[in-house]
User: Fold Phage tail protein from Domibacillus aminovorans.
Amino acid sequence: MAIQSSKVIFRREETGAGTDKRTVPAKTPTSAPKIIAHRYVEVSMTGDNWSTRFLGSELKIQFEVPFDSDTLPNESVVRIFNLGKVSLGRIGKGMGMTIQAGYVGNYGVLTRGKITNIRSYREGPDRITEIKMLEGQDVSAKKAEKSITFQKNVKGDVILRKIVQLLGLRLVELKLTKNVVYKKGYVVSGNLVNHLITVARDCGATPHYRRGGLVIRSLKEPTSEMCLLSEGTGLIGSPEGFAEEGAKGYRAISLLQHKITPGVMVQFQSRTSNGQYRVRKGKHLSDGANEFKTEIEVV
Assistant:
C-alpha cells in the first residue's frame, strides 16, 4: 500500500536560539524570550465555569510530552513562569488541559487530558507553576458494572466500540487488521481494559493513545503521514542505532515536529541512515528558551 507523504519542512534558525547575548539582571523575573517569537506554544485549560489559554509569546512555558505505543496513558509536565495569582487560583485538579506547539502557521496538538497535580515554587526571582497532566483518562481499574453478553457471530469491532463506550474514552481511530468473528459470542465482565486489549489483539491491533485520544490499530502498519528528517528539515546530528528489548532501530533528535506520533513514518537523510522507519516512542520538549525539540525512537 502506498504511503502518502506529508513532509513537514522546517527552516534552520540562523539567528535563533543561543545567539541572544543580552544580560538579564539577577533579580529580574524571566519573561518569554524574544528569540523564539517564530515558535508557537499554547496551553489551554477548561473547567466547569472557567477556561483560558497561556501563550509562549507572553509567558515562559516549559513542557515535556512523552508518547508511546502502550495502553497506559502518559503523564506530561508543563511549567509556567510568573503566572498571575488570579489565574493560578483558578487552576484545579480534574480540569481539562491541551498542549499545542509548533511554529507560527504550522502548529498542532501534542496531547490533551486531565490535570492531576499542581504545585508552585520559587526558583531565584521566578515563581514557577508546575502542572502535571494525564493523557486521556486512566481507566486501568475500571470494571463492568454487570456482565455483558454478545450474541453468536458478533464481530470484534462491535465489542471494541462497546467497551470504549463503557470506558468513556474518546476513540479517534479504529482500524483492525482482521475483524474477528466470535462464533460462540463473547462475554465482557470484570476489568474492561483487559477485554479491550484481548479483543484488539485477536484482531491484530493494539490500543494506545495519540494526542490524548484512543487509537486501536496495528503498530506494524504505519499511518498515512510521513516526515522527512534531514539536516535541512530539522534533524539535529545523526541518528544513532540501538538494539534492545527485542527491537532494533535508531534514536534521533529534531527540531520540534508536532505531527510525529507513534506509527508515523520517518524518512532519514543523514550520514548514518537513509531509510524509512516507523516511530514507536519519543517525547516533545521545550525549556522555554533554547530547547525546542522532538526525540524519537524508530524501528
DSSP finds three helices and 20 strands in the chain. Residues 148-217 form a domain with the Phage tail protein beta-alpha-beta fold fold (CATH 3.55.50.10). Residues 156-167 form the longest helix (12 residues).
